[in-house]
Amino acid sequence: MKRKTVSLCLIARDEEATIGAAIKSVLALVDEVIVVDTGSRDNTRIIAEGYGARVLEVPWNDDFAAARNAGLGEAVCDWVLVLDADECLQPCRPVEFQRYLHDPQVAGYRVRIVSPREESGPDGRRQVRLFRNSPEARYEFPVHEQITPALEAWARSTGLVIQDTPLVVIHDGESPERRTRRRERNLRLLNQALETHGQEPYFPYRLACETMLRLDGEVLPVGGLDEALGYLQRSWRLLSPKDDEELRCLHWLPDLGTRIASGMLAMGEVPAARSTLGTLRGLVPGHPLVLLHGVAADIRYLAERTNDLTSDDASRIIAAARADLERLRSGEPVPPQDTIDGRVRDLYPLRYFGELALLEGRVTEASERFEQALEWDPNYSFAWLGLAECSRFAGDRKRAMKLYLRAVTESEWNHRAWFRGAALMADMGFHDNAASWLRTACARFPEHPRARRERLEALDHGEIPAHV
Q: Is 412 a member of any domain?
């Protein structure tokens, strides 16, 4: 079996601290190393050349896709492997690596990207990083560049597919200062892209992703959520002319739709969130993120419409939600381009099983579910909140208050715990404590519906609502 050759392509700028480790991690697997240097002022070039790399000097023009494609254009091997200068490939036996390259049906492979600071969690996320060297396979978008759309189009035209591999890329942790600089750069490039590519839905989606704050996948009503939701909905509208098949090919569609729905829930717009999720479910039925957010929206709907729904309607919604949670926990296959965080499959359903049981008045079952969640993750703030709600339902208000405190101690971003705890303190007559919690919550979550009501009430009374 003739050996397939591989080109490593990476871009770098002032990466002397990490580029050597990146190249070294794949030297046994690749045949050439191409480094696109976009203006280093340190020893990046010297270190790369010391590992046998061919370094291309490419002026930086605010376009990551152009820099990536400059390297691809120089690659001469059968396959291309792409790394960033602060990444390393986990060890892989060359014979195993070659086995992937000899599959005649595969145009490219997704690998798992793992970083201790990534929102996707310990299971990582998947990206196409290994693919056949073809002039049709080129990156697009100046920021958050993508190879997948072009590679998928080429693969479909040639009868090939894109598959997963067990390969793992470790992304080096960034310092807070570097993360801040990267975020500022991305925001600048995304705003430029919005001006020059106003009809491209990817850019408003990515701009919203840069500014939204989430806790365990749930969008938080912090300052700027209104604007971020506006960008997401702009992206959603720009996608509306596409047919269903085109939409299903967008690997970021489930994240776009669930962010919109979660943001709407944070704003108290429950019917709109359920409508968005209904549309999304028609496009990507069974997607874990869609199932999970659909259950969250149904629980909010049930809680708000307790007095309006018939028992049959409520039972039907609860049964459907339970069925979706069981599908999640069963580990049914997910779309191949999406590696779903293990918390989505194993932890979050326990929380929602507990909330459904509490809605039905089954406090013991609900408590058991929340306890199971804490066995999975003792620091899971929403499980502590669930136990607080169980104690409150059972009439043990003192224990409930301790549990609300534990919930916000585990995560200061658990807005539900802050507002629910403040309400309980007021009910118990601890008005100063309630006011303190409410001030904290309103300052931290200024776009929460309760914070907005507080602000309006203060203005109606001629007060200056400094805390909101």
A: no
Distance CA 373, CA 105 (A): 42
Number of Cβ within a 10 Å radius of residue 338: 20
User: CB under 8 Å to 45, separation ≥6 — which residues?
Assistant: 35, 37, 55
In a domain, 309, yes or no: no
Per the structure, the count of domains in the chain is 1
DSSP state string for 104-171 = TTEEEEEEEEE-TT-TT-TT-EEEEEEEE--TT---BSSSS-BSHHHHHHHHHHHT-EEEEEEEEEEE
* Residue 32 phi, psi dihedral angles, 5° rounding: -150, 150
d(CA 164, CA 333): 12
Q: Using an 8 Å Cβ cutoff, are 35 and 48 in contact?
A: yes
Please check whether residue 37 lies inside any domain of the structure.
Answer: yes
d(CA 465, CA 438): 12
Chain segment 48-78, per-residue pLDDT in tens: 999 999 999 999 999 999 999 999 999 999 9
- Cα–Cα distance, 128 to 140 (Å, whole number): 13
Query: What predicted TM-score, i.e. pTM, was given to this entire model?
Result: 0.85
Q: What is the pLDDT of residues 4-51, one digit of tens each?
A: 999 999 999 999 999 999 999 999 999 999 999 999 999 999 999 999
% pLDDT > 90, the chain: 82
Phi-psi region of 217 (alpha: psi -120 to 50; beta: other; left: phi over 0): left
Q: Is residue 286 scored above 80 in pLDDT?
A: yes
Domain with residue 67: its CATH number is: 3.90.550.10
Query: Does a structural domain hold residue 287?
Result: no
Strands 87-89, 79-82: parallel, antiparallel or unpaired by DSSP?
unpaired
CB < 8 Å & 24+ apart, contacts of 113-118: 113/87, 113/169, 113/171, 114/168, 114/169, 114/170, 114/171, 115/170, 115/171, 115/172, 115/173, 116/173, 117/173, 117/174, 117/179, 118/171
pLDDT at 463: 57
Q: Is 224 left (phi over 0), alpha (psi -120 to 50) or beta?
A: left
- Looking at residue 461, its pLDDT comes to 60
Mean pLDDT of the chain: 91
So what's the pLDDT on residue 173?
66
DSSP 14: S
Q: How many residues does the chain have?
A: 468
End-to-end CA, the chain: 69
Q: Domain residues for 73?
A: 6-175
